[in-house]
Amino acid sequence: DTEVTQTPKHLVMGMTNKKSLKCEQHMGHRAMYWYKQKAKKPPELMFVYSYEKLSINESVPSRFSPECPNSSLLNLHLHALQPEDSALYLCASSQGRGSGGPTDTQYFGPGTRLTVL
Amino acid sequence: RKEVEQDPGPFNVPEGATVAFNCTYSNSASQSFFWYRQDCRKEPKLLMSVYSSGNEDGRFTAQLNRASQYISLLIRDSKLSDSATYLCVVDDSWGKLQFGAGTQVVVTP
Questions:
Q1: Nearest beta carbon to residue A105 from set B34, B95, B102
Q2: Taking CB atoms and an 8 Å limit, are B99 and A102 in contact across chains?
Q3: Which member of A54, A63, A99, B62 has the lowest number of beta carbons within 10 Å of its beta carbon?
């Protein structure tokens, strides 16, 4: 089973709202990722968690705040977003064998389509 | 220069025909190579990993040319359901994946 689940599927929020995106995997993967994807563009990496610790932050604005409560869950807390943040937010996971060597295959969830009004 | 470059297409392919396209990458230290497919408004799904010796999965064949730093994907006997955007994905040798902009394939009846 290579399933990554994400909730909600769709989210509409105002610029003053606070909301959270959730991601879950039960494959025993130890690396989890948040990506942002705009229409007709490839996914852009935002954050990487490895063994529940934040290992990469791709200079993402602080209005996006990731959290990894345990090895199966990954959240993305949203606050004071801008309309240009509207996009598909994808969560992914991989085995996470650590640094060095070939990079693991990443498996993506279905995404949350976010609209900021 | 982009790290991973792909012909955006679209490649218009009659049903049953063969289509092939390449992707070039700039980092000679890359070790992991993948093809993902992405349907409109859906998530990327792994199509296949690409190995040095080349590999085949049914109607799909992937090749890696390290000397020239490109990978290729060939689809035989195209089906309507093969219509999608194919993303070339290469690691940056530090554990991050880099995505090409995708090649759109449209299979027509």
A1: B34
A2: no
A3: A99
